[in-house]
Design a protein that fits this description.
Pfam families: Fungal_trans, Zn_clus. InterPro entries: Transcr_Regulatory_Elem, XnlR_reg_dom, Zn2-C6_fun-type_DNA-bd_sf, Zn2Cys6_DnaBD. This is Zn(2)-C6 fungal-type domain-containing protein. One of its GO terms (cellular component) is nucleus. The protein is about 50% helix and about 0% strand. The protein has 23 helices and 4 strands. Strands 1-2 form a two-stranded antiparallel ribbon. A two-stranded antiparallel ribbon has the order 3-4. The N and C termini lie far apart (about 130 Å).
């Protein structure tokens, strides 16, 4: 069979896949040659642009979108179930992302810094701010808790692997080291903004401030502040700068520096004026929007007003505003400046927020105790870890700049980070003491409940003490101690004052009722802690200047003195208790040359010594202080303190013991009569009252005295010695 001729296959002309830019604009047919005919004839540059191919929606994608739509509709009908499901999805995504980051060796866990901008022609060098997502223009950000209709669901906290943690630590350490070098470079090139203050005075005030931060916490993170001081970044503001100036002014010693900080007798006045103007100016938004620098500034000024200037109410208000801003930003939740859905936090941001929160937390507890008021930041309401990753200041050699008349650099690391971490842990225990022992409802609790609470907190204190790192756990009796740090002694003094603060209410019938046996054990704890504070004072006096002691040491001195005086009341005038009490008075006398509060504690102790009939060699004389603003306290007239033996209404020390046949001794102090100790806390008709020219006012009315009335011989009738809220008596 003859084969059929093959039908020729008609080839379909392929469509040109792309046209050059000229042909595309002019709607011409392009031959897609490297130099197409149209362009060659018209003398045009023939260029081709890559076109992104758009994917056509597949059936699977359409089906997925339909399922998502149905799921969203269902979630509107059952919001609680949807919330739990979403949390599970986020947790799974977080773990998946973390595994990818942890397994990737070429993906850094931190953000790189911008290179240094160097103009070789002018020699001008400044450090550039680290570019984070958080450096974008500020947005309206607010924290809302689970009960709020605007609740922001928190993201699952990522658990960093050890390698990632080490990588972040190394990066923060490198950044801090580099920034320390850039401080000098920026200073020499006039890049730092001192807000009109001379460079020499400005740097001196900053140095004083950095040196005093170690004992109370790192309110201001130095690398971020000093970097942004040179470039106007988010962690610098003139409000914060003048707050630092003002807080550091009390440590100025050179006459020319003191003169530059304000008018005669008003040290730091010019800086406080500037701070007030920035805070309260008509065009200022400092109090209207929550900012990290505003929180830092308010905390610094609050501390200075309280410890230095005796302006307790304003200090309390500033502290409250700072705490409210912390909550407003959500810093108390996870240390990442709130739940910002549009903002991711860098390791530096987290370091700033964590240090800020825990500094505020510590300050809140201290002010609560000193002023006898409820604390604002509760341990139960925060989830910020006590974890600080920048360890530069941990191993930096310590300088005694604000602690010695002749500053010197010690051959000993500062240990600032570990000290701060232990201070935070101790502050948590302090929070439990305040709410369990000194709250309004504590007196209504049953004795069994109070006893269990006290033992639980005492166990926590003992565990804290035993778990201290070796470099912070000083053996106070060891003769081998050659070098100590003031903030380490401050930490230990706070611990011992917490022991007394915990147990002393169980000795006094005026607060928490207790039996003689229970009171004896409680007073034994107090006496042991008071003796340890005395050793701390001796060690501090040996190495540092007592007039510049941290305020924690000053408070511990007062607390221990309230115990020494009761022991001295039952012993001879040449006893060790008298010597301990005299050391406390002398230490407070030196510290009152800088701060107001020690003058108040001296008055309290004078009244107590007078009532218990304890004979002392001498009392510190009142001094006139300079501060940012004249107050009634600074106008107090120095008066000659009468000798104790000249007072006709003193009670003689007890020379007999209870005849009940019971063992009324204190464990470890067998020569003390606990019943007599307990009676020393009681207020009765035999105690001295107000002078006759103020008839009808009992001792508790002291809290209502107006400023200026303290010129009365207040030590002759102030016969009670509170630990919680002692500063509200004046």
């Amino acid at each position: 069979m003859p084969s059929q001729p093959a039908t020729p296959i008609r080839k379909r002309k392929l469509r040109v896949s792309a046209a050059c830019e000229f042909c595309r604009r002019r709607k011409l047919r392009c031959d897609a040659e490297p130099q197409c005919e149209n362009c060659r004839q018209r003398g045009e540059d023939c260029t081709y642009a890559t076109r992104e191919k758009k994917a056509r929606p597949s059936n699977a994608r359409i089906h997925k979108l339909e399922e998502e739509n149905a799921r969203l509709r269902q979630s509107l009908q059952h919001p609680q179930d949807a919330l739990e499901e979403t949390q599970a999805v986020i947790a799974a995504d977080t773990i998946s992302h973390h595994d990818q980051v942890g397994d990737s060796s070429d993906q850094p866990a931190y953000e790189e810094h911008e290179p240094v901008d160097t103009d070789h022609g002018s020699g001008h060098v400044v450090s550039q701010p680290v570019i984070h997502a958080s450096s974008e223009p500020p947005q309206e950000v607010a924290f809302h808790g689970p009960s709020s209709v605007m609740f922001n669901m928190p993201k699952k906290q990522q658990q960093l692997s050890q390698s990632s943690m080490t990588q972040i630590k190394n990066q923060l350490l490198a950044d801090a080291t580099r920034q320390r070098q850039m401080e000098v470079v920026n200073l020499n090139n006039n890049s730092l903004d001192f807000d009109g203050v001379s460079h020499e005075l400005g740097m001196r005030l900053l140095s004083l401030f950095w040196n005093r931060q170690y004992y109370s916490g790192t309110i201001v993170y130095r690398p971020a502040f000093m970097r942004d001081m040179a470039c106007g970044g988010r962690y610098f503001s003139k409000l914060l700068l003048n707050a630092i100036y003002f807080g550091a002014s009390k440590s100025l010693t050179r006459p020319e520096d003191v003169k530059s900080s304000g008018p005669s007798g008003q040290r730091g006045w010019s800086f406080r004026n500037k701070f007030d103007s920035y805070l309260h100016a008509s065009n200022s938004e400092a109090l209207w929007r929550s900012e990290v620098t505003t929180i830092q500034a308010l905390l610094i000024v609050s501390d200075a007003l309280f410890t230095w200037c005796d302006e307790r109410s304003l200090s309390w208000h500033y502290m409250g505003i700072a705490v409210n801003m912390i909550v407003d930003l959500g810093i108390h939740v996870d240390g990442s400046a709130g739940l910002r859905s549009k903002e991711s936090c860098s390791p530096e941001d987290i370091e700033v927020y964590r240090r800020l929160f825990w500094s505020a937390y510590t300050f809140d507890k201290v002010q609560s105790i000193y002023q006898g008021r409820p604390s604002r930041l509760k341990d139960i309401d925060n989830s910020v870890p006590i974890l600080f990753l920048d360890e530069y200041e941990e191993y930096e050699l310590f300088n005694t700049l604000t602690y010695s008349a002749t500053p010197q650099q010690l051959s000993r690391p500062t240990y600032a980070v570990s000290t701060f971490q232990e201070l935070c842990q101790l502050s948590i225990i302090m929070d439990h003491i305040i709410h369990s022992i000194y709250s309004e409802k504590s007196a209504s609790a049953s004795p069994a409940e109070l006893s269990n609470t006290r033992q639980s907190i005492q166990t926590a204190l003992e565990n804290w003490r035993m778990s201290l790192p070796t470099h912070l756990s000083i053996q106070l009796d060891s003769p081998a101690i050659t070098s100590v740090l003031p903030h380490t002694l401050s930490l230990l003094s706070m611990y011992n004052s917490m022991v007394i603060l915990l147990h002393r209410p169980f000795v006094s019938d005026g607060h928490l009722q207790s039996t003689s046996s229970g009171a004896g054990q409680a007073f034994s704890y107090c006496a042991t802690a008071a003796l340890e504070i005395d050793k701390i004072l001796q060690l501090y006096q040996k190495h540092f200047c007592m007039s510049t002691t941290p305020y924690f040491v000053s408070y511990a001195t007062y607390v221990s003195a309230t115990i020494h005086v009761r022991i001295a009341a039952q012993r001879r005038s040449d006893s060790a208790a008298h010597k301990c009490l005299q050391r406390c008075l002398d230490a407070l006398g030196e510290h009152q040359t800088i701060c107001h509060a020690p003058r108040q504690t001296i008055k309290i102790l004078k009244g107590l010594i007078l009532r218990l009939g304890v004979k002392m060699d001498h009392f510190p004389e009142p001094v006139s202080l300079d501060c940012s603003k004249p107050t009634a306290s600074t106008r107090e007239k120095p008066t000659q303190t009468p000798r104790i033996e000249d007072r006709h209404h003193l009670r003689s020390p007890p020379d007999s013991r209870s005849g009940s046949g019971e063992d009324n001794s204190v464990p470890g102090f067998t020569d003390l009569d606990i019943d007599e100790v307990m009676r020393s806390f009681a207020m009765n008709s035999t105690d001295p009252m107000l002078p006759s020219d103020i008839e009808g006012q009992a001792l508790p009315a002291l809290g209502n005295l107006e400023e200026g009335e303290n010129d009365l011989d207040i030590d002759s009738f102030l016969s009670f010695d509170p630990l919680f809220g002692f500063n509200n008596l004046f």
